[in-house]
Amino acid sequence: MDHSYRAAMGGENRNRSSGRPGSAPSYSPAEPEPLPQREDGASRIFAFVDDLFFRSKIQETARKLNVNVEFFRAEKDLTERMKHNGEEKPSLIIFDLNNVAAKPLTLIPKLKAKLKKETSIIGFLSHVQGDLKQKAHEVGADMVLPRSAFSQNLAQLLRRHGAPDEAEGAVTPPA
């Protein structure tokens, strides 16, 4: 009999100590493995998030993954920042669809027209806002998630979009 599962769970009697029949062990999520640091230190992920809870959640997850995320309040701030990036376009733009200051339903179509398919636009909202979700999809958001799903998938999203390009990360052999 293979006992590796029991050993990984901390022994045979782990669940018996809780006193509740059928209670499952709780697992804390594994810490995400950090990505290699970008050589230029530039951010490829931008966010329009005013909610302090989600802003700090994004910042903390990004810090653990070694990914830079820049936060903006208005369209003009993002436009100016993108001018400094030159040809490099952002990989991901995150919108809190309830952020009235950012005007997401007006800004998303402008960004989609300018950035095309090279930039993913993800919005998050309350799970009861079905109409807003539909409108966000109609104006061009690539993905619209409830807050809970956004939180659960945040590390994967930042990892996917914050990773250095293959050309950047490639090691060139010495001549």
Quick structural gist:
With 175 residues, the chain is an alpha/beta fold. The protein has helices spanning 4-8, 52-65, 75-85, 104-115, 130-139, 147-162, 166-169; strands spanning 45-48, 69-71, 92-96, 120-125, 143-146. 41% of the residues lie in helices and 13% in strands.
Structural summary, described in words:
- This protein is of the alpha/beta class.
- It has one domain: Rossmann fold (3-Layer(aba) Sandwich).
- It contains seven helices and five strands.
- α2 (52-65) packs parallel to α6.
- The longest helix has 16 residues, at 147-162.
What's the arrangement of secondary structure elements?
Blueprint: H1 4-8, E1 45-48, H2 52-65, E2 69-71, H3 75-85, E3 92-96, H4 104-115, E4 120-125, H5 130-139, E5 143-146, H6 147-162, H7 166-169
Parallel strand pairs: 1-2, 1-3, 3-4, 4-5
Helix pairs in contact: 2-6
Q: Could you name the ranges where pLDDT drops below 50 across 5 or more consecutive residues?
A: 167-175
SSE sequence, one letter per element: HEHEHEHEHEHH
Strand content: 5-15%
Query: How many structurally independent domains?
Result: 1
Placed side by side, the strands forming the largest sheet appear as 2-1-3-4-5
CATH superfamily: Response regulator
What is the CATH first-level class name?
Alpha Beta
> Can you tell me the CATH topology?
Rossmann fold
Rg from C-alpha positions? 20 Å
Q: Total helix count?
A: 7
Portion of residues within helices: 40-55%
Tell me the number of strands. 5
**Cα distance, first to last residue?**
55 Å
Q: Tell me, what's the shape?
A: globular
Main sheet characteristics: 5 strands, parallel
Average pLDDT metric: 80
Give me the CATH architecture, please: 3-Layer(aba) Sandwich
